[in-house]
Amino acid sequence: MNNYVIVDTGCANLASVKFAIERLGFKAIISDNIEQIKQADKVILPGVGSAKHAMANIIEKELITGLQQLTQPVLGFCLGMQLMAESSSETNEQANVDCLNLIPTQIEPLNAQHLRLPHMGWNTLSQVSDHPIFTDIKQGDYFYFVHSFAAPLSDYTIAQCEYGSTFSAAIAKDNFIGCQFHPERSGKLGSKIIENFLTL
């Protein structure tokens, strides 16, 4: 039996991510024990809230080095994706928040061009790569977003979305994959993303 672990970052949507996995017939545990996380076949890094708060939790739980050393597939949801970046400007202070530095990109305010923020609701993917996480997912498919910050387009962008400007809907480097949208709240297509990941 595969061993799936959801990292307990102290954020609010841990249970909903666990339920989304269980609806697919898989089992997962929620843990902040780094040894348990290291032994997992697949790791999910969820998140709702601010990068500053989540990183403070991760530092307090002494998870940074262990997460950086993971070699199995890791999938970040929303804030979990943003935590994979080098840093986030999601703060009222002058200094950016240092993140996990798993994927070389920075999280910046979403340039919504006067559209309402946060970007909240269903939106389509404007471009999708052939990454295995997107098996049976295509350009124009709808996913659920809630965010005011985003990763810009880069060499690590594997899906794009448009809301005032074009931003990275998903990024990936090596074994680390992040989705800016919420797969656990995106209906059948979101479930397909989760299934694709768990069966990589």
Give descriptors for this structure:
200 residues; Rossmann fold; 4-stranded mixed beta sheet; 6 helices; 23% helix; 31% strand
Broad CATH class: Alpha Beta
**CATH homologous superfamily designation:** Class I glutamine amidotransferase (GATase) domain
Question: For the residues shown, what is the average pLDDT?
Answer: 95
Largest sheet: 9 strands, mixed
Low-confidence stretches: none
How many separate structural domains?
1
Give the overall form: globular
The percent range for helix content is 10-25%
- CATH topology, by name, is Rossmann fold
What can you tell me about this protein's structure?
With 200 residues, the protein is of the alpha/beta class. It has a single domain (4-198), classed as Rossmann fold. It is 23% helix and 31% strand. The chain is built from six helices and 13 strands. The chain has helices at residues 14-23, 34-38, 51-60, 64-68, 79-82, 187-198, and strands spanning 4-7, 28-31, 42-45, 74-77, 87-88, 97-98, 106-109, 119-128, 142-147, 149-150, 157-163, 165-173, 176-179. The chain has a nine-stranded mixed beta sheet. Strands 6-5-7-10 form a four-stranded mixed beta sheet, with helices on one face. Strand 11 and strand 12 (165-173) form a beta hairpin. The protein is globular, with a radius of gyration of 15 Å. It starts with a strand and ends with a helix. The relative contact order is 0.17.
